[in-house]
Amino acid sequence: MTEPADLAVATDRASKRKEEKRQRLLAAAKKLFIINGYHETRPQDIAREADVAHGTFYSHFTDKREIFLAFADSALEDMITYVYPRIPKVETFEDYIRFSLIAIQEFSEQNPGLLRSALIDTRILDPKDTSTKEIRNRFATGFISRLRDAKLKGELYEDVEPELIGHAMIGLIQTSAPTAYRMGKSRQEYVDHMIRFLTRALVKEPKNLL
Question: Which residue segments constitute the domains of the chain, with CATH numbers given?
Answer without folding.
Answer: 4-61 (1.10.10.60), 68-202 (1.10.357.10)
